[in-house]
Amino acid sequence: MLNRYARAFFTRVLTPTAQFLLRRGIGPDTVTLVGTLGVVVSALALFPRGDFFWGTMAVASFIFSDLLDGTMARLSGRVSKWGGFLDATMDRFGDAAIFGGLSYYFADVHDRPMLVLSLICLVSGASTSYARAKAESLGYECSVGFVERGERLVGSLAATGLAGLGVPFVQAIVLWGLAIGSTATVVQRILHVRKQAVASGPTAAPTAPVTSAGPTTTVTSDHLKPGKTVEATS
Question: What is the DSSP letter of 110?
Fold first, then answer.
């Protein structure tokens, strides 16, 4: 939900930067890879140490590459299935690094409830994305969702940044909300696809080709009595 509104706004804001990079010969795939590397390094270097505020600032600065590369692809006429595949795959690495870094910190300080919440957000977030990708590969529509990637990123980073500034309870409240919302989104997408599958009816299983019987042949061997006949097929 948040993705739709934020993407339109940031596309207008990032268009001058996208045009500048394209004039310098930098392609959208390069921006995708560099942005993902920045997110992963920032999250895994700073979040496990408890540097929540500066970690959030560093991760947020690279997150914009996720919008910048798409803007560059559209401006240069290089929108392709490969670019979409690369972008979606790199997004999974970035999301895993953010919640993985938080999980490492909570495990290190023995905060089991927050550790469990972080792990639920990590797993349910990946499952949400996979459910949509798999559904669309099978020909189903699966764009529904209470909590999509935009909500997960904005919510988790804003709460983590505020926790780094010493604001109490906000991180726990937001992670609880994301854990519940992301899990509900997975269930929502499963039910949404099942409804479409039931409406379209069962898919017939492929049938084996019918072969015509060949002539009857007399075969003798150690396992067959002399003169026993078997059917030979072509």
Answer: T
Question: Percent of the chain having pLDDT more than 90?
Answer: 60
Residue whose C-alpha is closest to residue 34's, from 77, 14, 64, 73: 64
pLDDT tens digit sequence for 142-188: 999 889 888 899 999 999 999 999 999 999 999 999 999 999 999 99
Q: Any idea which residues carry the catalytic annotation?
A: 91
Exposure letters 109-144 (e unless 16+ CB within 10 A, then b): eeeeebbebbbbbbbbbbbbbebbeebeeeebebee
Please name the residue ranges forming H helices in the chain. 2-23, 28-46, 52-63, 65-76, 81-108, 112-137, 149-164, 170-200
Q: What is the pTM of this model?
A: 0.80
Pick from 130, 35, 28: nearest CA to 80: 28
Report the C-alpha dihedral over residues 71, 72, 78, 82, rounded to 10 degrees: -80
Q: What is the pLDDT of residues 9-54, one digit of tens each?
A: 767 788 888 889 899 999 999 999 999 999 999 999 999 999 999 9
Task: Give the side-chain half-sphere CA count within 13 A for 210.
Answer: 1
Q: Are 233 and 214 in contact (CB under 8 A)?
A: yes
Distance, CA of 232 to CA of 187 (rounded, Å): 53
